[in-house]
């Protein structure tokens, strides 16, 4: 613009501006003479910044108040009592997770209102949870998620790959939490991420490094390390591919609690080997250990150490970020029998309710329930196969029952489970 042009009045502050460059009067409409000068734009920007800062402070006050209210409901003994309604046995695991969750809330509260200069922050205690297939790892975490009032997301670690390879990047775990928090970044940054099947990303070579590409194992652990340490993670919206111009969402993982879990098949052999080395006797008086005297899985798994995890194939840096080790035991026949009938969502209760809707009273003999438990032990799949065994037995009867609306009683016997004989049906 030339200096000979007439002065233009700002529509906000009423100053008369002689524009010498486009930045003196950034907004100007010659048709309506509407104009905003650079001074007003700066003032508006500062006002917006101050308003956003006030909003953030208000959100912190509200978040701190909600945390105080929630902490009264998630004290460790209350969380364990809640889990006892759904999970049989695994008392030690319930205590560890209950304490970890409660401490996570206390850490969030301290971050909101601490004024002690001597302690900047309370470090988070990420958890690694391990146990055999079907012992209740995922069930524990899914019921915890229902109990909590903070975002909780589950991600399958076996689907993750190192950046640059085909598959899901590790950032997808944070993205899942972001959507679980209804796209609220501040809530997301205080949530919980559960990485299931974590043992599947153990490096194949164990302690020894590999010189070949390892897209689904060690590289993934190195990528996860960034999140566990508490850095800022960038990811694209769901369904968008990564490219330089794609808009990204940033989330700081400093206050996100990570729980990783897996079956860690074979780790009991690593533990037994280590214990055998420390307790071995050499000489004529050495005790010969028989097959029946070898320690069982439940005795071994509780003695796991970070060194055992390192031998299994978890890199030391990751182990250092997972200070809490939570172990679950195998389920014996009696435990499986209780799982069938006692929890609030027990399989037997579910099928009884389904049959009630057709005016049918469903009964299971104790021998039949024991047969179901024995079958689950034979399959070596723990509690997750219980419902499948009952479903297989009930298929024909559930197909035929709706043919009539008459009230009836159906009794499932041991023979029905083992030999697939038809259950007894009688009118009532």
Automatic annotation (TrEMBL):
GO cellular component, one term: HslUV protease complex
SUPFAM superfamilies in UniProt: P-loop containing nucleoside triphosphate hydrolases
Key words, A-Z: ATP-binding, Chaperone, Hydrolase, Nucleotide-binding, Protease, Zinc
Residues annotated as domain AAA+ ATPase: 123-347
Keyword presence, Nucleotide-binding: yes
GO biological process: cell division; proteolysis involved in protein catabolic process
Molecular-function annotations in GO: ATP binding; ATP hydrolysis activity; ATP-dependent protein folding chaperone; peptidase activity; unfolded protein binding
Keyword Zinc: yes
Pfam families hit by this protein: AAA_2, ClpB_D2-small
Domain Clp ATPase C-terminal: 331-425
InterPro entries recorded: AAA+_ATPase (IPR003593), ATP-dep_Clp_protease_ClpX (IPR050052), ATPase_AAA_core (IPR003959), Clp_ATPase_C (IPR019489), Clp_protease_ATP-bd_su_ClpX (IPR004487), P-loop_NTPase (IPR027417)
Stored SMART domains: AAA, ClpB_D2-small
NCBIfam families linked to this entry: clpX, PRK05342.1
Annotated PANTHER family: ATP-DEPENDENT CLP PROTEASE ATP-BINDING SUBUNIT CLPX-LIKE, MITOCHONDRIAL (PTHR48102:SF7), ATP-DEPENDENT CLP PROTEASE ATP-BINDING SUBUNIT CLPX-LIKE, MITOCHONDRIAL-RELATED (PTHR48102)
Protein name in the entry: ATP-dependent Clp protease ATP-binding subunit ClpX
Species whose genome carries this gene: Anaerovibrio slackiae
Underlying gene: clpX
